[in-house]
């Protein structure tokens, strides 16, 4: 399972991943490899061993012999990856394919004509077309066109709750917004903060707006923003979501000191595990965080459910927000597209999916359900997989989906809303002004 620090590192990496001003025409793909090999640039963390094994497997395969091509994997340390990728994509030795976060992290490359549009290739190849969960494949798209192939685990945002507290106070996991508000009132009466929130990190605040905008207005609202239309921030659903967040804050749903509580130092998880807060909206890595810090709580009292529906809203309760996965994207100047596509088919294989499961990740492949019994927590793994499998839409985390130049000012405006330095209407106006 991915850790919270990994999630934020990926998000922070997206901030500097691309800069349209720094993009130049790249040279012929593959020139960075040795002996004419095609190059694949990957984020060099522990999970890169799965990609390394895939490369070895492909280079020894019949597919490689048929295309007369081979892949060379280049691992880049995580802290260096964004800058190294940006430099490489502007050089004659640009990689043939590269790891990324989808959405805004590759939009500037797409706009500069540096990416292969994979839509038709996927549609024509049954392995690629049927090999991945549709919502995850779509989450990596821009303007309805596919520019990435899923290649790592899924990280949906989930509403976690303390089963013992819920049983003690006769509460049920909320399926509607009214039920959530009723739970809040009963918990506050008992002296328990309804929700833990690591507000000093800001990105945990973002998760609330992501889900509320989806539940109120549907995934189409943020799709407009993701695809480069800042006017999308003016949709009534964004204002309603901001107003709803302010109502929660003013009503004490997050307690009084949430802006000084962090997730990254373990503060918010501790409040949740120790029963001082009853619920926690967080990415799927919350399970592994709790298992590492409070194993007794993780095994006995940690519950999970979908974010509730909003009465009268356009969004389906099955919709998911979070980090769908990471993707391989292909350089438009690659010298051997056939070999690259043959390699990408391995990402849909059972062998590849088994390696992800063994490492604690939940694959985005369509046939992974039968493999999850081998996961560290099969019940939680199955919940995550089914959640994404059944999702009509999976919205990429806003801080990874928007243009990198917009990410930091967007997060600043979100924090101002949460700490009371901005009103919902000013919040909307500020977002509309981001270019």
From TrEMBL:
Recite the UniProt keywords alphabetically. Signal
- Extract the signal peptide range: 1-20
Q: Which Pfam families match?
A: SBP_bac_1
PROSITE patterns to which the protein is assigned, alphabetical: PROKAR_LIPOPROTEIN
Name of this protein: ABC transporter substrate-binding protein
Q: Which organism does this record belong to?
A: Streptomyces andamanensis
- Organism classification, top ranks? Bacteria, Bacillati, Actinomycetota, Actinomycetes, Kitasatosporales
